[in-house]
Amino acid sequence: MDTNSAHPDIDGCTSVCGDCAAAYRRALREGGLSGTVPECLIRFGLLRKVEGSAEHLPVPPSVAAITLARPIRRAILDQRAALDALIASLSPMDAVYRHERQRHKAHVQPLVGREVIATAVQGALESCSEELLSAHPEGGRPSGAMAGVLPRDLSPAGRGVRQRTVYGHTVRAHGPTLAHIERITQEGAEVRTAGERFERLIVCDRSAAFIAVLAANGQEAYALEVREPGLIQFLTKTFEAVWERAVPVEFDTTGHRPPRLTDEIQQAILALMVRGHTDEAISKRLGLSTRTIGAHIKRASTRFGSRSRAELGFSLARAGFLDPARDPSGPPGSGADQRGA
What we know:
With about 350 residues, this protein is of the alpha+beta class. It is about 50% helix and about 15% strand. The protein is built from eleven helices and eleven strands. It has helices at about 20-30, 40-45, 60-105, 115-125, 145-160, 175-185, 230-245, 260-275, 280-285, 290-305, 310-320; strands at about 35, 45-50, 55-60, 110, 130-135, 160-170, 190-195, 200-205, 210-215, 220-225, 245-250. The strands form two sheets. Strands 4-10-9-8-5-6-7-11 form an eight-stranded mixed β-sheet, sandwiched between helices. Strands 1-3-2 form a three-stranded antiparallel β-sheet. α5 links the parallel β5 and β6. α8 (about 260-275) packs across α10 (about 290-305) and α9 crosses α10 (about 290-305). About 25% of the residues are buried.
């Protein structure tokens, strides 16, 4: 509804000026005004022309306000009615929305307890028919533990499932894990190791995924079973990014084990040290003992003649030691001769 004629501030007049106030006072004292009167008083409804006469009679401000507000109140009521109608028309969709959101939540289920997690993962692996992706950030596990998971890891490969697994570089120095890797690669699985940080992940046929949820102390608190396509796509792309940068684990025909990639491990340790991580934190992230972490840092300090971590960090940055594009044949003792893989 057009309220321009009823609402004076739309015409640029927001209050009664001094001259108009004086004219209104005079109209009250004299009982009216004749002839030409201030237009402002007409627009505000404070003067009302007597029909058939040139005289304008004063109107109480409260009455003028009611008259001015009437079309505005009517417009508000119309808008409120339109709003109520809009809400009413959408209310049936609210139940649809809640139902679909509830169904969406079912696509991400928490799994609490080792037995529950193991059972859910085993069920997904048994139904896996095309592709199995897995990432294991921790270091080597005891030989007994590796023997326990060997049948599970061999089963998909035996069914012709393409199997790709990423470990941390540190497993290259762990005999039981290397033996496990050698066994599954003989069945066609592909294994690579990476020096960067990644989280535990299992993806079956890009339709089911399992991720670990860590507590504040870094220990695994529980797992999430994910069947939401969009989230699985994100997790798969994350895995592929790590896979592309990882180094293949290859066993030659003479039975020699893959090189340890000492340089990459040392770079990972020093990079974390430069970012302010303690030996304990680095140990948890890379799956190495704190003694090994300390030995790497001490070796680097000796090599660069540094007397503190801060000085070592400065020396590493100045030498470009942590630059990913650094020439692997660089500083002595870099381990370049151990790469091979």
